[in-house]
Write a structure and sequence with these properties.
The complex is a heterodimer of chains A (about 850) and B (about 230). Chain A is built from 23 helices and 27 strands. Chain A is of the alpha+beta class and about 850 residues long. In chain A, the strands form 8 sheets. In chain A, strands 17-16-8-7-6-18 form a 6-stranded mixed sheet. A 5-stranded mixed sheet of chain A has the order 22-24-25-27-26. A 4-stranded antiparallel sheet of chain A has the order 2-1-20-3, with helices on one face. In chain A, a hairpin with a 2-residue loop joins strand 10 and strand 11. Chain B is α/β, with parallel strands linked by helices and about 230 residues long. Chain B has 8 helices and 11 strands. Classes of the chains: A alpha+beta (about 850), B alpha/beta (about 230). At the A-B interface, helix 18, helix 19, strand 21, helix 20 and helix 21 of A face helix 1 and helix 8 of B.
């Protein structure tokens, strides 16, 4: 399959096949249409033959009639099957009285046997001796003929212009074909028109002396004036039944005053026009007696004898013939049209000129039949067709049609099938080339589509023009050369069309064919520009301006709506309703996005550093705001991370420094101890040593507390929360500090509920807290006072309260006491680091419990609050 | 006459320790890093090692690992690091005890004495089978005598009963109430404090450093238990 797609030979074969099948389709289709038009599918063979033969009998009949007076037998009559006889009769009744079986009845004939009257055809013609036979392609079945008269135009349509001869009182029609002015016997003036609006025109027609309104114009006007020439009085008279019935006489008077023509009387309408719009009148051209404006030609002039006419040939000086007053009627009529507006038009009918008896013709009938049977040499068809008369030719065509009339359908069908298969194959194979799997475009596909199609149309137009030129040649010169030429040109047209079609298929296969069009480029350019403008508007314009712009647009649309539908309340309401819906949707979207932003703000305020607003679908400023929130969050979490890092670093630093300090401190403590053990007589030395010993121990404690504090405050400690019994804790505390409190003269009083109270805490950290507190109490409580430790459950919380009386006045708040290195005694000379409460607070925080410190005069109170474990 | 190896990169500390230990009648060998310590141990007959953790050339932990391959001599680690994780690391690689810097010389002397006694006595195999033994504590229920590292400790009757209860159920946590009920055979109405005070006293008698007990441990918020290596 792939091979077939890219095979050049297969493509050539497909092209050839498509050409042949195309020809077959066209030929068989044309034949089919021809057959059905001729009635081959409806009529019997006999009827068709009759129909054909009748046509050619008429043609031959016309020919023999026109040659009636010549002595020589016409050439076409030799070796023909046409049998005829010419007989004169004025009417058909008269003809029926004549005995047509008798050869004597005929003025001329070529009957050579008994006349089969029932088979004959009758052709009638008014023969004047002046008329002649004219034909196209006499030898061809498809030729045609007509009978012409050298004197008369038989139809008014042959007349190109009308002239009114004032002196003669005659209207002439000019035939450009015969260069003759024919006098008009029947004349009808018809003026039709459509008024521009209802109140534009009311026409009053002046009928003689009486002014009467003939037609009130409403939406249309229609005047019809019919006149017939009265030969006796040599004037036109209105025909009965027309609007001007009451007119006695037709007076067409046209004055020529210089270049200006005036018409009166029957052209009453004209009068009015002339009165109303002289300016139009001045535009009347071709109305003077200037010879140049009149065609030279023959003219019939009344000779005054019984209404007879004399024909003058090549009249140049019309003045002599027509008299001094004449005017081209159509120009006047044009003027009417000009005055009334372009919606008016007119018709002038000059009728029945041929009825006038200046013609000396007679009616003739040609009786004819075709000798049967028509025979021809079937083996040598083309020669017999060429040499045969029209009947032989027709018989050949009929026989061919009978043979082919159903066969053509088979041809048509197979042709169509082949055509479709080839076309589909070519479409599939389009763009495939040998040696590559990709679709290969031609240089045509690189051009914009419109250019390609422009070239295509121009090519087709040129060939079409050439074809039409060549095809006209076929009619006149039936040459095989011309036919071939035409065929080749038609084929070229079809091939070009196919090639361009396949090229388009390649474009489609290459994908996005519309991208390579000028329209698309212009569109995308406009889109880009608009986008750029919109972007620059949205980024560089202050919010207020944007709001004004938005408000302005909405107002403008509303204004337009009011302007358009202002009168129509229902439509206005409808527009108003739609606008509200659209506005609601817009406001709703804004509201939703606001809500999203609000939620994001709340999350961030709560410290959710990982929350990100989805700004993808947000509009304008909301999007910007959302992005800002996101970047705030990113910045915040970054800052927090930095801070954590620096805290960790600090802790590490403190730990390392502490370690380093510990080693020299060990030596100091040890050697002080050793010194103390020496026998020293000097009392001062002993005293100094005691100070060294005390201070070095204090330093030791300080360092340990410092490490603890830094770890606890940065959360660098592991916390294992367990279910502990608070009561047991208190008991253990008492046990641990029994001696110390006794030494300080303190009385420990513990109060706790009967039932065990369980709390969630890390035992060792909790011990550290209690240890610090109790050490504090032992150090700073007034000797001989009581220390109260209470445990109670309040609102699902276990509250442990330590209360004692301070030894020193506490002029410092509870919060300050919890700061690092702050101690209640200003002297700072007792042992302790000042970190105990701070550490306790940090550890409590780590365990998720509350640590509260209150100072009330000398009362020192610490409250620990734990969550009760279930 | 026992031989003790003191190993620390700080010469002053080594000297100070030498003074204290010599005063107690030990012969002291000196080393200034882990490598030297291993060499000394290979060369001499050492009965106890006091070793710093952070030292140049070879640190204490690495030296511990090497040392354990050649000897089961008791080792007390001297460490500036007071974190639990450091202590646990030291004990898992084979140390018998640890002392955090800055240390109290008296405590070091006590621990050294304790370790040497245990080391030597365990080697002697003088423990009677019916006696309760946890670490260095030995309880003889027939004579109602308690010895710590071979030395007799004077306990009151209540203290003795509490210690016996905890030692009999080594590792088990007893709440003050439970202890009271089983020792006093009475209901503890408001008298649990007594147990805590007794335990405190007991701890001061059996522990070298009651703040950091090795055997009688306080389980905060739950009670007390005996725990030995």
């Amino acid at each position: 399959m792939e091979k077939l797609k890219s095979s050049l030979i297969a493509k050539i074969i497909a092209w050839v096949l498509i050409s042949i099948s195309g020809f077959l389709i066209v030929a068989s289709g044309a034949l089919g249409i021809f057959f059905s038009e001729q009635g081959f599918y409806e009529l019997s063979e006999e009827e068709i033959r009759e129909q054909f033969f009748e046509k050619y009998q008429d043609r031959y009949a016309a020919m023999v009639l026109m040659e009636k007076d010549s002595e020589v037998e016409p050439e076409f009559l030799q070796n023909t099957n046409f049998r005829y006889g010419i007989v004169q009769a004025d009417t058909l009744e008269e003809l029926n009285k004549i005995d047509l079986t008798s050869l004597d009845s005929y003025e001329k004939y070529n009957f050579d046997e008994e006349i089969p009257l029932e088979k004959t055809d009758r052709f009638e013609c008014f023969y004047t001796g002046d008329n002649y036979y004219s034909e196209m392609n006499p030898d061809s079945l498809w030729g045609y003929f007509w009978i012409r008269d050298s004197h008369l135009a038989t139809q008014s349509s042959y007349l190109t212009s009308y002239v009114y001869a004032k002196d003669a009182g005659l209207l002439y029609g000019y035939s450009a074909e015969s260069y003759t002015y024919y006098p008009m016997e029947n004349v009808a003036f018809i003026i039709k028109g459509l008024a521009e609006n209802e109140n534009s025109i009311s026409v009053e027609v002046d009928a003689g002396e009486n002014v009467s309104e003939i037609a009130e114009i409403e939406s249309a006007i229609y005047f019809e004036y019919h006149y017939k020439y009265d030969r006796d009085s040599q004037v036109y008279r209105p025909v009965e039944g027309t609007d001007l019935e009451n007119e006695t006489e037709l007076q067409i008077e046209i004055y020529i005053d210089g270049d200006i023509a005036y018409a009166t009387d029957v052209f009453m309408i004209f009068d009015e026009i002339f009165e109303k719009g002289e300016s139009f009148f001045y535009q009347l051209t071709g109305t003077s007696l200037d010879n140049e404006s009149w065609e030279t030609g023959d003219v019939y002039v009344p000779d005054g004898e019984n209404g007879g006419f004399t024909r003058y040939t090549d009249v140049e000086a019309e003045e002599e013939i027509f008299g001094s007053g004449m005017v081209e009627v159509s120009d006047i009529m044009d003027l009417v049209i000009a005055a009334y507006g372009q919606d008016y038009y007119y018709e002038i009918k000059g009728l029945s000129v041929n009825e006038w008896d200046y013609m000396n013709g007679k009616m003739y009938y040609v009786i004819s039949y075709v000798k049967n049977p028509i025979e021809y040499d079937e083996k040598n068809l083309s020669e017999s067709y060429e040499n045969g008369d029209l009947f032989v030719k027709a018989q050949i065509v009929i026989d061919f049609a009978q043979k082919m009339k159903y066969k053509i359908f088979e041809i048509l069908l197979s042709g169509l099938l082949t055509f479709i298969v080839c076309l589909v194959y070519l479409c599939i194979a389009a763009g495939h080339r040998k040696g590559t799997d990709e679709i290969v475009g031609t240089w045509w596909t690189k051009l914009p589509l419109e250019v390609e199609w422009g070239i295509f149309l121009i090519l087709e137009f040129i060939i079409c023009f050439l074809t039409s030129q060549v095809a006209t040649g076929i009619e006149q010169i039936t040459s095989i050369f011309w036919i071939i030429m035409t065929l080749i040109l038609l084929y070229t047209m079809a091939w070009i069309a196919l090639a361009f079609f396949l090229n388009f298929v390649v474009r489609i296969k290459l994908g996005k064919w519309w991208r390579k069009t000028i329209v698309c480029s212009i569109y995308s350019w406009i889109k880009r520009t608009v986008k750029k403008t919109a972007l620059s508007f949205s980024t560089n314009t202050p919010m207020v301006l944007k709001l004004i712009a938005f408000f302005g647009i909405v107002s403008f649309i509303e204004f337009c709506g009011i302007m358009i539908f202002g009168c129509d309340t229902e439509a206005l309401l409808c527009v108003w309703f739609i606008e509200k819906i659209v506005l609601f949707a817009l406001v709703y979207i804004c509201f939703l996005q606001m809500k999203q932003l609000k939620e994001a703000g709340e999350k961030i305020a709560q410290g959710d550093m990982n929350y990100q607003v989805n700004t993808e679908k947000m509009l304008f400023e909301f999007k910007k705001h959302g992005e800002n929130l996101n970047s705030i969050n990113t910045g915040m979490s970054k800052a927090v991370e930095e801070r954590m890092k620096s805290e960790r670093f600090k802790t590490e630093l403190i730990t390392n420094v502490s370690h380093d300090i510990k080693t020299p401190l060990t030596s100091i403590i040890n050697y002080v101890d050793l010194l103390e053990k020496e026998a020293i007589e000097n009392e001062n030395v002993a005293e100094y040593l005691e100070v060294l010993s005390r201070q070095s121990n204090r330093l030791k404690k300080l360092i340990e507390d410092l490490m603890e504090a830094s770890k606890a405050s940065t959360g660098n400690l592991q916390v294992n929360l367990e279910k502990l019994e608070a009561g047991v804790f208190l008991v253990q505390t008492v046990g641990e500090f029994e001696e110390k409190t006794k030494a300080s003269g303190l009385d420990l009083i513990i109060k706790k509920p009967e039932e065990p109270v369980y709390i969630l805490a890390d035992g060792r950290h909790y011990w550290r807290v209690i240890d610090n507190l109790m050490n504090n109490i032992c150090k700073y409580a007034q000797n001989g006072t009581r220390v109260y430790i209470n445990l109670e459950v309040k609102d699902q919380k276990a509250v442990i309260t330590f209360r004692n009386t301070s030894k020193y006045p506490l002029n410092i708040s509870g919060e300050e006491l919890m700061e690092r290195f702050v101690r209640g005694d200003s002297s700072r000379n007792t042992e302790g680091s000042g970190l105990g409460l701070s550490i306790a607070k940090s550890l409590m925080d780590l365990m998720g419990a509350d640590f509260e410190l209150m100072v009330d005069g000398d009362l020192f109170k610490v409250v620990l609050t734990f969550n009760v474990a279930s | 006459m026992y031989n003790i190896l003191v190993c620390d990169d700080e010469k002053d500390i080594v000297s100070a320790l030498k003074i204290y230990l010599t005063a107690d009648g030990y012969q002291v060998f000196e080393a200034y890093n882990g490598k030297e310590a291993i060499e000394v141990i290979e060369r001499e007959e050492i009965h106890l090692v006091l070793m710093d953790v952070m030292m140049p050339v070879m640190d204490g932990i690495t030296a511990m690992v090497k040392l354990r391959q050649i000897s089961n001599v008791p080792v007390i680690l001297l460490t500036a690091k007071s974190e639990d994780t450091d202590k646990i690391l030291g004990l898992t690689v084979g140390a018998d005890d640890y002392v955090t810097k800055p240390f109290n010389p008296v405590e070091v002397q006590a621990r050294v004495k304790s370790q040497i006694r245990r080391y030597m006595q365990l080697g002697g195999g003088s423990i009677k089978q019916e006696n309760l033994v946890i670490g260095g504590i030995e309880l003889d229920d027939r004579t109602k005598e308690v010895t710590l590292d071979g030395e007799k400790i004077a306990l009151t009757r209540t203290e003795y009963e509490i210690l016996k209860l905890l030692m009999e159920h080594s590792g088990q946590v007893f709440s003050p109430n439970q202890i009271y009920e089983s020792v006093w055979k009475d209901n503890p109405y408001g008298t649990e404090n007594t147990v805590a005070v007794h335990i405190r006293h007991l701890r001061e008698k059996v522990e070298i450093n009651p703040a950091e007990p090795r055997y009688l441990k306080v389980v905060w918020g739950r009670g007390y238990k005996m725990e030995g290596k």
